[in-house]
């Protein structure tokens, strides 16, 4: 197999792994109805994902060095298929929690090694593009799964939409393709326990992605129930697609900015876009929901995700795997814990109050992180006599 195709094949596999993560999102309301539960229980099942991610990011940082990069991607693909099979065979909130546990394990394995593996598969002159390829393929996958399920549900309500079968078929193809990929880095007998690393200056980027993915988690887990109150349930999958995958449209602009500037711009956009999205959801204004989701996606999966991941990898030196694990650890904490608390508030105080409280905390968090990042950027500029360079550019 020509080596020049290897990055594209890995990107295809990463897209299929993340596609499975939100494949069931438009059915969350149906699962809750089957189980007779509310928003809080749905959020807890949704957050089973983090129980899978955390062990990988906290305790298995050295696994890629011991077994190689390719086996982890293969394992992640298998876990994504198992999760989809569980939801096909036994739909419900309990099954959703187990499936999302498997999805968390798989995504954790892939996240911890994807950027390093992509860099190793690329030609030396192109290796700086690894973060761009990873963010693009995973952003597309995270959003595409929910949108595909919504498309299949347009034909009529079902617990076994065709998107589930499609994911299984494409993931099986990806397994065969990844099996043939080279694994350039020789295995090493390093310690298995390698804790996430936060190089100097990287923590602010991790907190920024925590806030960004908290907003995304709320849209995926709780927005479908709010939209149902206004007869807009059919649009929940498309709102998930908009809040994730539309960020791809803004990544070319993000690559032209310095990492700190891209992240700061994302932190400025995030609370404004959330306000529009929350107003649209509360008032039943579909245009407000979709426009707010697209604007939030520009921050979450455009400026903050790409800018933050590129900055962390630049700061990490030879410890890219551990530094990426630290970045994604904070991202996935944001993806789950705030969603659970907001779900509890929604059950007790109503969806409007829950959205308002989340918005207030998001605004304060963005302001604090932006201030810390701005100060650190100014200090770095004074030490170096200039600002950090632009994000890596895609080769033509």
From TrEMBL:
It holds the Pfam family MFS_1. GO terms for molecular function: transmembrane transporter activity. It is a multi-pass membrane protein. GO terms for cellular component: plasma membrane. Its main location: membrane. Residues 1-396 form the Major facilitator superfamily (MFS) profile domain. PROSITE patterns: MFS, SUGAR_TRANSPORT_1. The keyword Transmembrane helix applies. It is found in: Membrane. Keywords: Membrane, Transmembrane, Transmembrane helix. The chain crosses the membrane at residues 39-60, 72-93, 99-118, 130-152, 164-182, 203-226, 232-250, 262-281, 287-311, 323-341, 353-374. This is MFS transporter.
């Amino acid at each position: 197999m020509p080596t020049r195709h290897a990055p594209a094949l890995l990107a295809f596999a990463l897209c299929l792994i993340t596609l499975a993560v939100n494949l069931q999102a438009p059915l969350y309301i149906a699962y809750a109805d089957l189980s007779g539960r509310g928003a809080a229980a749905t959020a807890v099942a949704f957050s089973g994902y983090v129980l899978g991610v955390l062990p990988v990011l906290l305790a298995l940082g050295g696994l890629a060095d011991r077994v190689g990069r390719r086996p982890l991607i293969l394992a992640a693909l298998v876990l994504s298929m198992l999760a989809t099979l569980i939801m096909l065979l036994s739909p419900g909130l309990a099954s959703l929690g187990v499936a999302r546990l498997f999805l968390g394990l798989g995504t954790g394995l892939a996240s911890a090694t994807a950027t390093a593996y992509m860099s190793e598969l690329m030609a030396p002159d192109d290796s700086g593009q690894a973060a761009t390829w990873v963010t693009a393929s995973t952003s597309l996958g995270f959003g595409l799964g929910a949108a595909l399920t919504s498309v299949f549900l347009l034909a009529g309500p079902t617990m076994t939409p065709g998107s589930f079968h499609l994911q299984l078929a494409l993931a099986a193809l990806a397994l065969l393709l990844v099996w043939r990929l080279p694994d350039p880095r020789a295995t090493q007998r390093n310690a298995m326990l390698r804790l996430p690393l936060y190089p100097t200056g990287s923590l602010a980027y991790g907190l920024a992605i925590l806030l960004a993915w908290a907003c995304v988690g709320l849209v995926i887990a709780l927005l479908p129930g709010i939209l149902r109150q206004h007869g807009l349930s059919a649009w929940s999958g498309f709102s998930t697609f908009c809040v994730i995958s539309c960020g791809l449209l803004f990544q070319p602009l993000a690559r032209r900015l310095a990492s700190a500037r891209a992240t700061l711009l994302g932190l400025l956009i995030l609370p404004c876009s959330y306000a529009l999205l929350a107003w649209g959801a509360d008032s039943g204004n579909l245009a407000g929901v979709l426009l707010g989701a697209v604007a939030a996606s520009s921050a979450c999966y455009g400026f903050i995700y790409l800018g933050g991941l590129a900055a962390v990898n630049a700061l990490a030196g030879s410890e890219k795997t551990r530094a990426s694990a630290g970045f994604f650890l904070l991202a996935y904490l944001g993806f789950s814990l705030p969603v659970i608390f907001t779900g509890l508030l929604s059950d007790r105080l109503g969806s409007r109050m829950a959205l308002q409280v989340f918005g207030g905390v998001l605004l304060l968090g963005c302001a604090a992180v932006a201030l810390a990042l701005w100060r650190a950027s100014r200090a770095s500029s004074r030490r170096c006599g200039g600002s950090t360079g632009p994000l890596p550019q895609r080769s033509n």
